Amino acid sequence: MRLQLAKQLLDRQIVDADGRLVGRVDDIAFAVDADGHPYVDCLLTGQGALGQRIDGWIGRLLVAVADRFTDDPPVPPLRVPLAQVARLDSAVRLRCPASELPPSPVESWLRRHLVDRIPGSHRASG
Amino acid sequence: MRKLLAVTLGVLSAIGGFVDIGDLVAASQAGARFGMAHAWVLLVGVVGICAYAEMSGRIAAVSGRAVFDLVRERLGPRVALLNLVASWLVTVITLAAELGGVALALQLATGLSYLLWVPVAAAAVWLVLWRLRFELMERIFGLAGLALLVFAVALFALPTDWARLGHGALHVGSAGQGWSVYWFVAVALFASTVSPYEVFFFSSGGVEENWSTRDLAHARSNVLIGFPVGGFLALSLIAVAAVAYHPSGTSLDTLDQVARPVATALGGAGLAAVVLAFFAVTFGAALETGLSAAYAAAQYFGWQWGKRVSPREAARFHSVLLVSVLLGVLMLMTTVDPVRLTEYMLVLSAVVLPLTYLPILVVANDRGYLGDRVNGRWTNLLGALFLLLIVAASVAAIPLAIITRMGR
């Protein structure tokens, strides 16, 4: 598949099989095959990955904020194997539901320490 | 019949989305100081917001993506982050001003100091966002906001010189207050008409309500009826202030003074309607700005957002929402006067306007997202002309604020 990575893949929204929002393509991990050709291995998503890509003090701030809201920093980026990508249109659509991927540490932390403690957090208001 | 009802309800939401504390303050101050000389600003603002709301509604319906969602793809993570920070800050300041408006309306109703009402208003806003259904929420406050029509009614009971009002609207003059003050007020009124959160909210709301291309006509009619009606309400605010205050040139500093001519003309019932209207439009706008602040952050980072999923599944979205409301309360608890806060908020809104409107125009021309539903030639011409005005207002806002010392 021929693709302009920076234009068509980087920064796109990642959507799971049920339409849930997983994150954005914050960075891309490459690997090298036996013949020495580089190929796209994984899509990386998470505030840490974004922070490292932006770099500078702003990037470090993003990483620091993400690390503050987790139990065991540093937060590794969520790796989405390219094989999980079903298609690519205005968003990156996955084959699997988000529950099959590791959860975002910051989301889980805020859920546990803040949102779940408020009554009614289990019901959607629509 | 059901379709007609749906359109009416959609229009109500658009009206509710249009009028807020910014309009109450800016329109009344313009009327009191310059008579009808700023009527044209409202007209221009309404035409512009209609064009851009239509574009963002179309983007939401065709691509299923909200405006801020696309900003990062088009501008890259660094510039989009700058955009996010600026838009989020201005939206939170707007939220604070709206909460102040709710508290002032409750002060008008009860006589108790608004500072006591601020935490109550904030808790109520947060609770509605946590629990109430999206459509219901929009419609209740849109409908109650129509009570603002009492300003148009009051014009008939006040000693209104219609010929003079019409003349004032057509013959623009600076009423002896200097042109820099005239333009400062014009920029503030313009910013109140085209507040950035209106388009964030409109497009994100479209995504929440699962618009598709079949809803395009519906979305368009909401915009093309709702926003002009909102503009008419703002015009009647200018007119009432012009009739009641312009002859003596009094300057308006409180919401109380905005309400007084209606109470004089229509008595207790008029005052009750005004208080209801103030409450409804500021409360409705507080809901919208709170959501918009959280939408912007969630869409930049790609988090799950929205009211369709339970809060625990959108924990980061709801955390930002909560923090935004708390920040709004903190700002008001410094005892800053909510009307002054609104004036500063309008200047800052004017400055950040291009950050919202430029990406909409760019995306509305992108076939990758919109296929053959990209802008036509006339829409682009209108959009480009309006963008020039926005950039002019943005550049002029701070210098005018300094030269005129915030219009004093």
From TrEMBL, chain A:
It comes from the Bacteria. This is Ig-like domain-containing protein. It comes from Micromonospora solifontis.
Automatic annotation (TrEMBL), chain B:
It is found in: Membrane. Keywords: Membrane, Transmembrane, Transmembrane helix, Transport. It is a multi-pass membrane protein. The chain crosses the membrane at residues 37-55, 75-97, 103-128, 140-159, 179-202, 223-246, 258-279, 315-332, 344-364, 384-403. This is Mn2+ and Fe2+ transporters of the NRAMP family. It comes from Micromonospora solifontis.
